[in-house]
Amino acid sequence: MTIGEFAHWLEARAPLRLQESYDNSGLLVGRRDSPLTGVLCCLDADEAVVQEAVSRGCNLVLSHHPVIFKGLKQITGATAVERTVELAISSGVALYAGHTNWDSIQGGVSFSLAKRLGIRDAKIMMPRTGELLSWVLYVPSSHAEAVERAAYSAGAGRSGAYDECHFASPGTGTFRPLQGSNPYAGQLGVQSRSAELRLEFLVPKAAKEAVQKAVLLVHPYEVVAHSWIALENQWDEAGYGAVGNLQKPMELNDFLQVCAQNLGSDCIRYSRSDSSRILSRVAVCGGSGAEFISAAAASGADAYVTGDAKYHAFQDMPKDLVLIDVGHGESERPFIDDWAEAIRLEFTTFAVHISTTENHPVSTYKRHG
Ligand SMILES: [Zn+2]
Q1: Domain boundaries for CATH 3.40.1390.30 within the chain
Q2: How far is the centre of ligand 1, averaged over its atoms, from the C-alpha of 260 (Å)?
Q3: Cα distance between residue 28 and residue 297, in whole Å
Q4: How many whole angstroms from 332 Cα to the centroid of ligand 1?
Q5: 275 contacts 324 by C-beta, under 8 angstroms
């Protein structure tokens, strides 16, 4: 398998188009046509991690944060980023990052965090809008089923816990084949009328090209009448954060212990609340999610777990919602474990490791006496 083929597998699960405009996810260093020898997973790629990859025989470092983020104008070894890139190139180690696209997918960073905290039936906290299309096309009824199958297999027709959804209405299509045409039916220069079905499918933007390609392969017409229509509808399969219910309601104090224990957090800060207050619904957002507090409140959560919250965020919390800051890296690390496991389960031809040299950039000091 090549690095490019592996990147393709990653991007089928976490499409790059879901990343924010400021982001830089994807293959940052390395060649797509290089054979993949092994994957080393981490939050942040640095020189030590690249060296670890070399010593483990891995030629791909898969990180959550993109090491090249703001752009590089020179590689002179002057900064840690430049040295990491330089070492990666000279060692033949590719660098791939999945950042805000991994934050935005169902089963992504926030879902691993939710699972680690015992949150069940998690759903996306802030479903995206502007990600869905309606595809309308016309097909002779003889070929409707083949078109349906092709569309479904390429990702059309899914809505919530349903698939194979579409709408069909019968009608009459007209066309007149002109010089240069090669019509499936009808005669040159004569207007034809044919019984057709108007089919409508819901298609995520990410699947648009694949759906169109698959359908045009089985559609009999030389020129297919169709239209893509952008929808404002919410898409429940992408967006930041996750929200769900705890296995059983518990006191805030006990939940804080779960956070500390299950995430390995040395320092948890939370907004002033009665520690015996009962939590049953919890929202989470891996990384820096304090800007989404109002979405967490709107989701009906009793607590919101994230990282990097500022003083005034704690101060301004809505009365019914406890803000729990477990640390940026701590909130993202469960996904690295889950992702590595998913890759291991899928591929047996190369090794997958989780970095053991990566150091937490933040230390905490405990006052003595
Ligand atoms: Zn992060």
Answers
A1: 3-98+333-354, 105-127+240-326
A2: 18
A3: 37
A4: 7
A5: no
Write out residues in the chain with pLDDT < 70, as ranges. none
Structural fold of domain 3-98+333-354: 3.40.1390
- Return the CATH fold of 131-231: Alpha-Beta Plaits (3.30.70)
243 Cα to the center of ligand 1, angstroms: 19
**In 3D, which of 41, 78, 44 has the Cα closest to residue 361?**
44
321 Cα to the center of ligand 1, angstroms = 23
For ligand 1, the distance from its centroid to the CA atom of residue 205, given in whole angstroms, is 26
Report how far ligand 1's centroid is from the alpha carbon of 165 (Å).
36
Grouping H, G, I as helix, E, B as strand and the rest as coil, residue 283 is strand
User: What sign does the dihedral 263-266-269-274 (CA atoms) show?
Assistant: positive
Per-residue pLDDT reduced to its tens digit, 64-115: 999 999 889 999 999 999 999 999 999 999 999 999 999 999 999 999 999 9
How far apart are the CA of 233 and the centre of ligand 1, in A? 28
Per-residue DSSP letters for 62-110? EEEE-SS-S--S--SS-SHHHHHHHHHHHHT-EEEE--HHHHHBTTSHH
Q: Cα of 169 to ligand 1 centre, how many Å?
A: 48
pLDDT at residue number 161: 86
Distance 65 CA to ligand 1 centre (A): 6
Query: For residues 349 and 330, what is the distance between their CA atoms, to the nearest angstrom?
Result: 30
In the reported structure, the alpha carbon of residue 8 is separated from the centroid of ligand 1 by a whole-number distance in angstroms of: 23
Residues of each domain in the chain carrying CATH 3.30.70.120? 131-231
Looking at 3.40.1390.30, 3.30.1330.60, 1.10.630.10, 1.10.238.10, the CATH number of the domain 105-127+240-326 comes to: 3.40.1390.30
